[in-house]
Amino acid sequence: EYMGREHSSMSAPRLFHKSKSKRHIHANDIIGFLSAATPSDPFHSFSADEFLPNGERKFGRIGAYCTCNEFRMRRLKLGLMKVQINPDPLIGIIIHHTRSVHNIVQLAVSGTNPDSKGYALVFEFGCAVIWGLTQAEDKEFLKILQPFENDRNDQVEMDEGLFCRGPETKVEENLITLECSNSAALKRFVISHAIAQSVKIAYFEEQIEKMTKSLESRVNQTKTIFSQRELDKHIGIVFMLRSQLNATDISYIPALLWDLEVLKGLYEVMADDLDITKRVELLNSRIDTIDYIHEYMRTENNNYMATVLEWVVIAIIAIEVALGVLPYFINK
Predict the structure, then answer these.
(1) Backbone torsions φ then ψ of 90, nearest 5 degrees
(2) pLDDT band at 90 (very low <50, low <70, confident <90, very high)
(3) Cα–Cα distance for residue pair 159/130, rounded to 1 Å
(4) pLDDT digits (tens, 9 = 90+) for 278-300
(5) pLDDT digits 0-9 by tens, 94-129
(6) Where are the alpha helices (DSSP H) in the chain?
(7) If you average pLDDT over each of 6-15, 133-142, 179-188, 244-253, which comes out highest?
(8) What pTM was computed for the model?
(9) Angle between helix 27-34 and 184-220 (nearest 10)
C-alpha cells in the first residue's frame, strides 16, 4: 500500500461535506498561500532534469507524522516566526520561510547539510507532512513543533513514501510523481492533506484496536463488571475519538479546495489510494461495536447492582424477622 502503512487498512467517510460552521475560504487565498516559491523549496533542489547523469531517477522522501490531538495554531505561527529569526543551535533545522492560511502552516526548511532542503505542511489536527528531508531531520523538525502540541500522543504515528519529478503528476504504489509546473505547489498541498488525513486515521485505528482488545479481554474474563467510574471513562474516550474522527478536516475533502474544482480530482485519487473513506467508515463501525459492548457492560452493571440490592433487602428483612422473634425465644 502507498506510504507503507504499518497498520491494517480500516475506514473513512464521505469526501464531500460543506460544513456551514467553517469560514469560507476563497480560491485566491490558497493560491496565494502556496504560490510563494523560495530557494529552499525541495523542488528547487532538483535540477531541470528528472534523472541524474548516470541515468538514475532523482527521489526525495516524504514523512508524515501525527504527534498530538491538535496544534495551538496561533502560538505555533508566532513560535515558528521566532525560530525563523533566531534558530535554535541545538536543533539542526533552519526555517527559511513560513506562510499560513486558515488552520494550515507551510514552511520551507533545510537541515544542517546544505543540500538537504525541504518543505513542510503543518495541519491543525495534529499532523505534519515533510517533503525532502531525512527521517533524522524530520525528528529535529518535530522538536520545533512540540511546544505547541495539545494533548500529545503517547506514541508518534508515522508514515513515509517517496516522490520525484516528472512530466505529469501521478500517484503510484509507493511513489508520487509531481510535474514541474506553476501548479506543483497546489498539487503538493492536496497530496499532503490526503497523506495527513491518512496518518491521523492510522492513529485512530491504533487507538480503537487497543480499546477493542482491552474490552474483549475484559468481557472474556469470568469477572466482566466494570466499576461505574471505569465505564464512564471508557464511554468518554470513545465519544472523543468519534467526534475527532468525524471532524471535517480529518474525514472530508479540505475546505480550501471547494473553489478549486481542478484539484478535487487529484484529492479523490489520493483519498481512494489511501482508502480514506473506507477506513473511516470501518472505524465508525468499530466504534459502534464498542458502544454496543459498553451498553452490554452497563446492563451487566445494572443487573449486578439490582442483585446486590435484592440480597441487601433480603438480609434486612431476615434481620428484622430475627429481631422480632428473638424476644419470644428469650422470654420462653
Answers:
(1) -85, -10
(2) confident
(3) 11
(4) 998 898 888 888 887 777 777 77
(5) 888 888 877 888 888 888 776 778 889 999 999 999
(6) 27-34, 73-85, 135-145, 184-220, 228-245, 248-251, 261-273, 276-331
(7) 133-142
(8) 0.76
(9) 100
- With 0-12 / 13-18 / 19 or more C-beta atoms within 10 angstroms meaning exposed / middle / buried, residue 37 is middle
Give me the count of residues in the chain.
332
How far CA 215 is from CA of 208, 222, 289, 292, 299, in Å, comes to 10, 13, 11, 11, 15
Q: How far is CA 327 from the centre of its chain?
A: 72
**Dihedral angle sign, alpha carbons of residues 5, 10, 16, 22:** negative
DSSP state of 170: E
Give CA–CA dist 30/53, Å, rounded: 36
Helix (H, G, I), strand (E, B) or coil at 99: strand
Mention every residue, 6+ apart, whose C-beta is less than 8 A from residue 61. 131, 132, 133, 134, 135, 160, 161, 162, 163
Cell numbers given for 129: 507532512
Q: Name which of 270, 210, 199, 271 is nearest 237 in CA terms.
A: 210
- Beta strands 149-166 and 175-179 are parallel
